[in-house]
Design goal:
Elements lengths: L8 H5 L8 E3 L4 E3 L1 H9 L8 E3 L6 H11 L11 E3 L4 E3 L1 H7 L6 E3 L12 H99 L2 H28 L14 H9 L31 E8 L13 E8 L2 E7 L3 E6 L5 E6 L7 E3 L4 E6 L4 E8 L2 E9 L6 E5 L4 E6 L4 E5 L5 E5 L3 H4 L6 E6 L5 E7 L2 E7 L5 E5 L10 E3 L5 E5 L3 E5 L5 E6 L7 E6 L5 E8 L2 E10 L1
Antiparallel strand pairs: 1-2, 1-3, 4-5, 4-6, 7-30, 8-9, 9-10, 10-11, 12-13, 13-14, 14-15, 16-17, 17-18, 18-19, 20-21, 21-22, 22-23, 24-25, 25-26, 26-27, 28-29, 29-30
Helix pairs in contact: 5-6
């Protein structure tokens, strides 16, 4: 290793350029051979530490060492003393000016043997701090990768949705165009056939005109009379009969394009189908954050009471009314509750005592069901009507009404098929309506269900497996029945603690939730198996209506009535 040539510092003062042989750490300058010998002869210098030139520290280290020994108050003075009273180092000037009365002012060089000159402990601490810093830096690197992976998956989801939309549009376009072509072909063949028959008819009429002209121009009166008789007795009769047949077979059939889905509502649902939500993640936890494993599964979450409201004390009516909350839905930050006996929809904002609005129904209802991001359907069986409504800025607005052939007590929407499932307690039947409110077909319910009393049917809803779920309450037994769209029983759920089940809600995993008068909330698997009973607290008596919020981490529960004050309770799942 080559060593950078140094010139002797003392010789340079005498303007002599002599290459240095050693380096004095105390004097902080290189020395030649002669100056090294002088150092050894001079008493004040002979204990200075000399080192090879190859061990001379770099210039920045030399500057650092120089700053360490320099007095913090006097840049031209070096540190000489250590004042233990003030726990500071100082130079001669500082000692005279500020530390003359200090009892433990020591010369730094004299007490080195009393001070632990060992940085092992500090190196250990710094090593630990270094590892922590490197670990944190690795965390940030992995978190950056995680965010990029989440972004990639989100964009991939967007592309998947886009491709599905494109494929669905292509399928729709192909079906519509193909159907139009088939119908147009049939109609076109009919038009062609009619046109050919009409041209043939017109040729016959034209020919008879020609016969009359020729007879009138070239024949005698006898010819005219004979032609007239033949036309009146034969040809005219046949032509009248022909034109009558042509009139009957004229083209009437056509086609039109009917939109079975409200396009704006469909767009809103599509827009709300994918959203980005903030959440905190910890890479030290087991599992991937991109698959939502940092959330507890729905089968492990427990409900905790967040707030409770006594509905009887809400200042909304002129006098105290006797009413029973029977069903509820959650739209954005609003909870909509149907109050039986007074036939009112009450709109309450979450975490607020404020009643935003009340909507008076035209007749007694049996249920209110959420059908879209802001849409709902209200059943009015005593008027044989159902009303389609929207919640706008906390107010219920009826968009359309439908007169039904039988009274429907519960109506829910099958979003995947864009159909409405309607249950009639009185008739013991379930109907499926198209999106344009026309009857698609009736589900044939098994005789054992039809034999139940009308009051036994409490609610119906629909899950992602195309199953109709109904609750039944008969003497000494309460149960939930799942039917397919052919009316066949798929499963029957009953439990010794299930009493008085009413409204059913479903989480994103397909698990069912239904309340029981025995102060519990039953969680049921998509196949109808009991998962667990969740406690609701002793104050939650006679629950009836229940609903999830949009993010499925809270439920609203209503109940009471009669001798028990009606209430609204909000639970958080954690």
């Amino acid at each position: 290793m080559s060593v950078k040539p140094y010139l002797c510092g003392q010789c340079l003062e005498e303007k002599g350029e002599i290459e240095a042989a050693v380096y004095c750490k105390e004097c902080e300058e290189p020395l030649c051979g002669n100056c090294k010998q002088d150092h050894a002869r001079i008493k004040a210098l002979k204990h200075h530490k000399l080192c090879d030139l190859s061990d001379v520290p770099p210039q920045d280290i030399q500057e650092f060492l120089k700053r360490l020994i320099t007095c913090p108050n006097h840049e031209t003075e070096g540190v000489v003393y250590l004042c233990k009273d003030h726990d500071v180092t100082c130079c001669n000037k500082c000692a005279l000016a500020e530390h003359r009365k200090c009892e433990t002012l020591k010369v730094l060089a004299d007490i080195l043997h009393d001070i632990k000159v060992d940085c092992t402990g500090l190196k250990t601490i710094l090593h630990d701090l270094q590892q922590q810093g490197e670990s944190l830096l690795e965390h940030e690197r992995k978190h950056e990768e995680l965010v990029s992976e989440i972004e990639r998956k989100a964009l991939s989801s967007l592309q998947t949705i886009k491709q599905k939309l494109v494929d669905m549009y292509a399928e729709l376009e192909n079906e519509v165009v193909s159907t139009i072509a088939d119908k147009k072909k049939v109609i076109g063949e009919k038009i062609k056939s009619n046109s050919e028959n009409l041209l043939q008819f017109l040729n016959v009429v034209k020919q008879q005109y020609s016969h009359i002209d020729h007879v009138e121009n070239f024949g005698t009166n006898e010819h005219v009379v004979l032609l007239q008789r033949r036309l009146e007795k034969d040809t005219i009769c046949r032509l009248k009969s022909t034109v009558g047949e042509l009139e009957k077979s004229r083209s009437y059939s056509s086609f039109k394009c009917v939109a079975d889905t409200a396009f704006d509502s469909l767009l809103i649902e599509m827009k709300n189908s994918l959203r980005i939500k903030d959440f905190a993640c910890d890479l030290s936890e087991t599992g991937s954050d991109t698959d939502n494993s940092h959330y507890k599964p729905y089968t492990e979450r427990m409900p905790h009471l967040q707030s409770t409201k006594d509905l009887s004390s809400v200042p909304m009516f002129d006098k105290k009314e006797d009413f029973i909350p029977t069903s509820c839905i959650w739209i954005e930050e609003y909870i909509v509750i149907y109050l039986y006996k007074i036939d009112v929809l009450l709109v309450i904002k979450e975490d607020s005592d404020c009643v935003l609005s009340k909507f008076k129904c035209y007749s007694s209802s049996a249920s209110v069901s959420k059908t879209g991001p802001r849409d709902m359907v209200i059943s009015m069986p005593y008027k044989s009507k159902i009303a389609f409504a929207q919640l706008r800025y906390g107010n219920v607005h009826v968009v359309a009404e439908l007169k039904t052939r039988v009274p429907y007590y519960h109506v829910t929407r099958n979003a995947s098929l864009n159909q409405y499932i309607c249950m009639s307690n009185r008739e013991g039947q379930i109907d499926i309506l198209n999106n344009d409110e026309t009857l698609l077909r009736e589900i044939n319910i098994s005789s054992d269900i039809k034999e139940c009393s009308p009051s036994a049917l409490s609610c119906c809803t629909f899950n992602s497996h195309n199953l109709v779920l109904i609750t039944l309450n008969i003497p000494k037994e309460s149960f939930i029945m799942a039917l397919n769209l052919n009316g066949e029983k798929v499963f029957k759920y009953n439990h010794k603690d299930l009493l008085g089940p009413r409204q059913i809600i479903i989480d994103p995993c397909g698990n069912l939730y239904v309340t029981s008068f025995r102060l519990s909330l039953h969680q049921i698997s998509p196949s109808g198996q009991h998962i667990r009973s969740l406690p609701l607290g002793k104050e939650t008596k006679y629950p009836s209506g229940i609903c999830f919020n949009n993010t499925f981490d809270k439920i609203a529960l209503v109940g009471g009535g009669g001798d028990l004050d009606p209430y609204l309770r909000v639970y958080t799942f954690t």
